[in-house]
Amino acid sequence: MPEKHPVDETLPPLKMMTSGLQHVAAMYAGVVAPPLIVGAAVGLSAKELTFLTGASLFTAGLATFLQTLGIWKIGARLPFVNGVTFAGVAPMVAIVNQTPDKKDALPIIFGAVIVAGLLGFLAAPFFSKLVRFFPPVVTGTVITLIGISLMPVAFGWAQGPDPAAKDYGSFKYLGLAAISLVIVLLIRRFTRGFVKQIAVLLGLVLGTLIAIPFGVADFSALGEADLVGFPTPFHFGAPQFALAAIVSMTVVMVVSMTESTADMLALGEIVDRPADEKTIAAGLRADTLGSALSPLFNGFLASAFAQNVGLVAMTKIRSRFVVAVGGGFLVLMGLCPIAASLIAVVPRPVLGGAGIVLFGSVAASGIQTLAKAGLDKDNNVLIVAVSIAIGLIPIAVPTFYHAFPETAMIILDSGISTGCVAAVVLNLVFNHLGKSKDAADVTHPMEGGHDIAGSPPAKRAEEAPAH
């Protein structure tokens, strides 16, 4: 009987639960931020904001089930966490601002997400064919950019919970972030086995305990949260379908599918199960179907979470069932607000310290992929250099594209999207179109004798360990 791939292995119950909870802790802030921002723009009460946040957690869990466990040709069946994509926040806030009666804003957003999700689902098998345009020089660049692009999130968390507060970025917050970072590093350095693998979760717990005497840990959410709650279908009204909103969210869906493709390629490399065209099509179907179903339970457009790719890279726990357990926790939090508030207790600076490790691990994985990309060739060096530079523009100079139309900002504000497009185009220009006389020395993304990792199939088969 052939040995199971680590991605398909189940782990002991305690390890499954703690490792799954670690995934939830890593992505919690990213899931709850979009509904809080959009809900505040609509003018929801504190109770309705809590409901909208719980709905996002619940739908993120359902989308994660689709992605990790899969049904039919839906789901990449990789350790992939799905949740509300931040790419849709600005367009959704714009929709809110352009809606005369704010009561109609959420139904209009939900209607647009449903249509965008269904269109994306139909387009998934065609979109997945783009995988042939992602040789190591492209995937390595994009993976590196994912890690670098996430770093400002960790730095923002490290400075405190409220950018408008006077003590934002104070020594107290930065010190807590540094302590959390050091705790994670010490656990990784001086422990072994299971304890080493849950270093981030332990860092979050210990960091939170240390934050209590400084008055940074806020436990008030525990007292205010209900024990049981359910995201009633269409709680804010039946979906409405407005053309401008649909176009806007469809563009976001394309951006999200591009980023998810890059994330799947990155995760495939990390878990040693390269994502082929079939896997990417299945993963995109899970993303888009999850998005189309989310509004039923008052959720938004769903996408893969890159920060969890970093967690897989760091812990080396590759089981998709661990992430499925994390999806179970997300569903539980959506149904039990008091459980969700337990994660909310973790102070932002503590998350920031752990985030540096997580997001840095993604960038390091990209650099490892680039090491196989033939950087001794001038063409490939140019591709990496220019693509990373373009991808860093929104991070280094956030106002760089201020004169462009607002619709273009959906794409231009994402360094991952712009860097990915640049890498694909430059690779085609330098390594495929108009083959030069030194063509034998460059990478051809569509060459029949090479697989996605850029090596001839025969060679890869020889290198693969025998079971």
Automatic annotation (TrEMBL):
Protein name: Nucleobase:cation symporter-2 family protein
Matching PROSITE patterns: XANTH_URACIL_PERMASE (PS01116)
UniProt KW keywords: Cell membrane, Membrane, Transmembrane, Transmembrane helix, Transport
Entry keyword Acetylation: no
InterPro entries linked to this entry: NCS2, UacT-like, Xan_ur_permease
Region entry Disordered, spans: 444-467
Localisation per UniProt entry: Cell membrane
Superkingdom per UniProt: Bacteria
Organism: Streptomyces luteolus
Bilayer topology annotation: Multi-pass membrane protein
Membership in a protein family: Belongs to the nucleobase:cation symporter-2 (NCS2) (TC 2.A.40) family.
Membrane-spanning segments: 21-43, 49-66, 78-96, 108-127, 134-158, 170-187, 199-216, 236-255, 321-344, 350-370, 382-404, 410-430
